[in-house]
Amino acid sequence: MTSPIAPVATTGYPWPIETTRLANGLRVVVSEDRTAPVVCVNLWYDVGSRHEPPGQTGFAHLFEHLMFEGSQHVKKTEHMKLVQGNGGSLNATTNPDRTNYFETMPSEHLELALWLEADRMGGLVPALTQETLDNQREVVKNERRQRYENVPYGDAWLRLLPLLYPQGHPYHHATIGSMEDLNAADLDTFKAFHQQYYAPNNAVLTVVGDTTAAEVFALAEKYFGAIATVPDIPPAPDGTLPTPAPEPAREEVTAAVPAPRIYLSHRTYPFGTKGYDTMTVLATVLGNGRGSRLYQRLADGARIAQPDYIGAYGVDLAHAPAPLIVTATAKDGVSLETLEAGLSDVMRSLIDEPVTDDELNRAKALLTTAWWRQVSTAGGRADTLGRYATQFGDPAAAAERLSQWLAVTAEDLTAAAKEVLRPESRVTLTYLPGEPS
Amino acid sequence: MTLVTSRPAPGDARPYAFPAVRRISAHGGTVIAAHLPGQILASAVLLLDAGAARETDGREGTATVLAKSMEEGTRKRDSAAYALALEGLGAELAPSVDWDAFRVGVSAPGPLLAGAVRLAAEAARTPKLDPADVARVRDDEVTALRMDWAQPGPRADAALRGDLFGADGRYSRPLHGDPTSVAAVTVEDVLAFHEAWLLRPGVLLVAGDLDGLDLNALAEAAFEGTSGEPLEPAGPLGVVLPDRRRTILVDRPGSVQSTLRLGHRAPERATPDYVPMTLAATVLGGAFTSRLNHLIREVKGYTYGIRGSYAMTRRSGRFEVAAGVQTAVTAPAIRDTLGEIARTEAEGVTEAELEVARSWRAGQLSVEMQTPGAIAGALATLVVHGLPDDYYETLRREYLEATVEQVSRAAADHLSTDRLTLVVEGDGTVIRDELAEFGDLADAEV
């Protein structure tokens, strides 16, 4: 069957992309699509928890919260009210690499969204108060409790990072930060943080949807053009590290968890490299879906792992070797040792047993669907373009990711597994049910 | 040059339209399809009148065990071959169970959708259901529920449901059952549920670029070998409220937060008050700037987030406020929450608040309905609740036209602060004594 909508392997981004740069350094990316009467405004700031010095863990994320609490011409609580009160959805996220802010609006409110973003980029500091900081500090501490402390295995990511990245490395600490550092956060530090990093020349503005490039370029100049360039923004500490890690690391946790669980992890390559594309396909072969090796051999097959809690995935970080994470949880009556031996065997199979055509095609088909799902909304598209503009200097590079995944061969996978997945470079984190010691 | 000081006015709004809907009847069933020009992915959902409400008492979770057993092989191929065939199309099976329906969903690039629907139907209509496989899936589901119930939330949810719907059989138990009820599910229960409810045609929902999809072929794939008439829906359960407020403690030793679930019963989805109730709940606890989130998060800092909402199914409804609050502020957080519910019940909403709620709910119909999956979900709502194809246009207009008087009256009629059940899941040794001020305190039996 032929179809006008057959997925095209030659481009993963079959929509127009237009770019400009304002005199103050703000990069502007526009991708027009008139299908739905909605528009997404997305800002990537090239600052994340990797920029945090010792004693200030969690500050980039806490700062993200402060961005919703009013700015020079936007009163406290008004930001949320104006976006939702005009039909929009909004959020922001912080990770080790960057901080992003985004709102999807009915398209007649494009200008409102740009005004709101410009006001908090150029005018946040006058609105920052001790009361707001104290309130959002408590909110973030509750976020930490809710997401990391009060759920079984919730601290796994907090434990894996220091095992994967040495002291002083920009990825050594988790973005949520420590309670101790959050308690010590003072207002002047946040004012300085904004003045240092929330600069037009440290950001990418992406607009996707029901508008034109000409309209957005003119509005960007109108609202963001007055914001001053910040010279000499200091880079984050260098994240260069060898892959694979030179030695293994292991942590064994006894905690109030319902079943034994294992996380295995390896440092791989930075997101955006050929090596990481290979890892993305390898993780899919290994642990994505019921047809994956982990599922087939441990959840089905040997039946030692719980079928709902087994998988493998990469964490898409771009400024140092990104982690591949493999996890499995023991079925009733199965020991941690049995599960770990099973996991190790499946990991080794990627070196010893070539990936078959069926396995490779399955992985590529799943990744193809995942890619098109990611770009199926204005919001998903905007965030994708913002990422590629920020991290690789070119939003159009996004179009190549899918074809780069599809170009990975079985030989590439075996070679990468040999290089990266050796037990001598493995991080192992285990959980056993019991009283914490 | 400086920042622009004044807020820009909106541009011209494009008229709202839900995607064009096409219906065909073929091969014994109905296909309802929404046209999304240019979408590369397409979604299909086989919607069957086989919700959890059809399960036998004491065997709650039967439908979920069936849903998870469907991929253990079909009459045509074993589980490994099935996984490879479906995932080789880039699709994964998404079976799900709610109170009203059993859904089997797949998404794939448009040209591959027909193959994915054929495989989804193969699993739904002709699963192998080997007794040993079903028993193993059942045991795995018991374990999975124990994993889930180790998190804060599910036990509190079960305690609230048990209290609100205690006299209503299946509705008094969790949607997916609990570890005990699932352990009691037999292979025969699963086979009987499949035989009774999954062999009727049902409805196939499709969302995608219809120019590349053959709806007749999709109908054939979905309905081949099925028979039976649509089932008559059962009547609503009604709204029964207790005569006074009560508090239930679910002990979770060492918990650093208390999980709050405050609720009472409410009308079912067909209520004529659906729009004003939804808007009242949006003002109270739906929007970020809602009364609850503003006070409990943005002023007090007690929580990462608090939500209040009505959830309505074909036969039942309930009002609920849900939050996780720091253990040390459990009583003050409950006090403030009750205060905002009571204020909304007594005084209604203001025009300024309602204006945010109206525009947000109306705008969400465009903003949150961009993907084939979201549109297929919207089609399912039409079928389950017997709504017309132009429903979303009507709903949008009703949101935008709702008045302060209508919404305030809905708040007065459908909030009952003094008859709430307050479920608190937290560290009993720390919070038990302070809960006394909120009314009769009992310990949960979950």
Do you know the CATH architecture of the largest domain in chain A? 2-Layer Sandwich
Q: Give the number of DSSP strands of chain B.
A: 12
Q: End-to-end span of chain A in angstroms?
A: 62 Å
Shape field of chain B: globular
At the first level of CATH, what is the class of the largest domain in chain B?
A: Alpha Beta
- Helix share bin of chain B: 40-55%
CATH class of the largest domain in chain A: Alpha Beta
Strand order of the largest sheet of chain B: 1-2-6-3-5-4
CATH homologous superfamily of the largest domain in chain B - what is it?
Metalloenzyme, LuxS/M16 peptidase-like
Tally the helices of chain B: what do you get? 16
CATH-assigned fold name of the largest domain in chain B: Cytochrome Bc1 Complex, Chain A, domain 1
Keywords:
heterodimer, A: about 425 residues, alpha+beta, Cytochrome Bc1 Complex, Chain A, domain 1, 2 domains, six-stranded mixed sheet, five-stranded mixed sheet, globular, B: about 450 residues, 16 helices, about 40% helix, about 20% strand, protease (chain A), hydrolase (chain A), metallopeptidase activity (chain A), metal ion binding (chain A), Putative Zn-dependent peptidase (chain A)
Describe this structure as you would to a colleague:
Chain B: Pfam families: Peptidase_M16 (PF00675), Peptidase_M16_C (PF05193). Chain B: It comes from Actinoplanes campanulatus. Chain B: This is Putative Zn-dependent peptidase. Chain B: Residues 31-146 form the Peptidase M16 N-terminal domain. The complex is a heterodimer of chains A (437) and B (446). Chain A is α+β, with helices and mostly antiparallel strands and 437 residues long. Chain A folds into 2 domains: 18-224, 2-Layer Sandwich (Cytochrome Bc1 Complex, Chain A, domain 1); 249-433, Cytochrome Bc1 Complex, Chain A, domain 1 (2-Layer Sandwich), CATH 3.30.830.10. Helix content of chain A is 41%, strand content 16%. In chain A, the strands form 2 sheets. In chain A, strands 1-2-6-3-5-4 form a 6-stranded mixed β-sheet, sandwiched between helices. Chain A has a 5-stranded mixed β-sheet with strand order 7-11-8-10-9, sandwiched between helices. In chain A, helix 3 (110-122) packs parallel to helix 8 (213-224) and helix 11 packs across helix 15. Chain A is globular. The model of chain A is unreliable at 1-8 (pLDDT under 50). With 446 residues, chain B is of the alpha+beta class. A 6-stranded mixed β-sheet of chain B has the order 1-2-6-3-5-4, with helices on both faces. In chain B, strand 9 and strand 10 (317-326) form a beta hairpin.
